[in-house]
Known about the structure:
The protein has helices at residues 3-23, 28-36, 38-58, 66-72, 76-104, 108-121, 123-141. With 142 residues, the protein is mainly α. It has one domain (3-141). α1 (3-23) runs antiparallel to α6 and α3 (38-58) runs antiparallel to α5. It is globular. The termini are far apart. The mean pLDDT is 93. Keywords: Membrane, Transmembrane, Transmembrane helix. This is DUF4281 domain-containing protein.
Amino acid sequence: MTPSEVFSIVGMLAMPMWILLIFLPKWKVTRFFIDYKIIPITLSFIYAIYIIKALLIGGMMDFGSLKSVMALFTEENAVLAGWVHYLAFDLLVGMWIINQNKELKIHPIIIAPCLFGTFMLGPVGFLLFMIMRTIKLKKAQS
């Protein structure tokens, strides 16, 4: 299987989970996937394979400077591993947001931009959720 094919497959794994998180966060199927972390575990397995491949081809990875990181991301397997890393961790953050919101009880329509932001821009969606979470917790204390 080529890295391009794997790239397409991991996208097809992550996208439906994001749709479930954003549009059907309380559905039992969504809860099942959140509780058992099936997609992030699958992505982590794929990540491990490609990071090992990248190590075997290019040796130890140097994250010591921007230039060395840029050089690392010229290797197809390393780029694919990096992409799968983003997919897995952003999805875990999205699942964490849904779990946190079980207690906060912020309306899913208000949480949707946080999830979409996490899906598209990772830390930006997380930051937005943390701001909403802080506001909600402060209101609950007063």
